[in-house]
Specification:
Mean pLDDT: 94
Structural class: alpha+beta
Shape: globular
Number of strands: 6
């Protein structure tokens, strides 16, 4: 399969749609078996997870567990589910023909829950690979560009 820039952008849009539609297990299936999902601490995008507390530092198995847990009624913070709108923009693709395609983009996620609107903004860094002619996520790092998490100080959804 020969990739073009629009294939990558469409993949990112499809990922955002899956999350907005709460198709979290399908989202988790976008990751390779060795896939990782990270949200480093605010203000420390290059932090070492062995030395810092991350909001998320998931292996493939852990992110599948996270997705399944958030779909259950017992996940009170997300039941009923938040309404979200995710925007992906300023997509920069580095070396589209490489074995590992590095992609960086800005994002905005709007979340409404119990009459409160939260906004999450920042940068997403991906390592994408082709597997059986399908794009897959080898790693996703969400770098929040916030000075604090308001009003509640936590992240209860997948960014």
């Amino acid at each position: 399969m020969s990739l073009i820039y629009q294939d990558i952008v469409d993949f990112l849009y499809d990922e955002a749609r899956l999350l907005d539609e709460w198709k979290l297990l399908e989202w988790a299936d976008l990751f390779t078996g060795e896939g990782t999902y990270q949200i480093p601490p605010l203000g420390s995008p290059d932090a070492d997870p062995a030395q810092s507390i991350f909001y998320a530092n998931d292996t493939n198995a852990r992110l599948h567990e996270r997705a399944a847990r958030l779909l259950k009624k017992e996940a009170h913070v997300e039941y009923p589910h938040s309404n979200t709108i995710r925007n992906v923009h300023n997509v920069k693709v580095k070396d589209i023909q490489a074995d590992v395609i590095h992609v960086v983009c800005n994002f905005t996620t709007y979340r409404t829950k119990r009459e409160v609107v939260d906004q999450f903004i920042g940068r997403q860094e991906y390592e994408l690979v082709l597997s059986d002619d399908q794009l897959m996520i080898q790693s996703k790092k969400v770098v929040l560009n916030l000075d604090s998490l308001r009003p509640h100080g936590k992240i209860s959804l997948i960014l």
